[in-house]
């Protein structure tokens, strides 16, 4: 397993981070034993960072993870969890709401602190000044109280994430769906800002919200149809060569050395095994070039998310 520095936190994190969204039953049922087996296998393979959130399954992901890390496993990993988002359309960025969310998360995780605590999906806030002041100050207080070692924020719009690191003294951020086969905007538009401030960056959704899979995105995917169609054709090209676009996508994400950690949402050990294989399998340069050509018409495409107007 390769390890990279997470900003100036002092943490060296595995290039593959275990994502916990699927533990919350958001992509189909998964059992307690499956989660435990996956988490233990990931740690045994060298994964030392696990990301979850109060939002994932309304706490189910944290509950499953808390049980999986019992019996000495907790000490082997850094946990990142996220507060302020409680359901698909339920957010609470107030100091009281943030504190209540964190306390409930710690209870579910069966720990007295996490390594990283983020305000979740801040693009859905209705007042960004409030987030950069009141929510941020609450995160700072929780850090001072020892509830977390490091603090940060997460969101989709890179313009808003840039404002967050410029306005607040953040340790870590999560960006999603901006570093993958048809976009490296995270590298060109955000990493220079993060590096200048010593902010650690985790790359989530390296398969672009399911676009870069054989199954394609969920029906609620907010992006334009031409992106869905281009990715469908790229997946078809891979299948015709006996390859899987999601495997190629993971290989490509891991290869971006500027990004400390890429989060992958395997819920079962078989899925984890594929992601681990992508870490070491050499990328097919011909296949990659051909897929890139198919995706060129939508390269760098983004979509509206939350209330951000930038």
Automatic annotation (TrEMBL):
A molecular-function term among this protein's GO annotations: L-galactose dehydrogenase activity
Cellular component GO terms, alphabetical: cytosol
Name of this chain's protein: Aldo-keto reductase
CDD domains found in the cross-reference section: AKR_galDH
Taxonomic lineage: Bacteria, Pseudomonadati, Planctomycetota, Planctomycetia, Gemmatales
Domain NADP-dependent oxidoreductase: 16-285
Any Pfam family: Aldo_ket_red
Gene3D superfamilies: NADP-dependent oxidoreductase domain
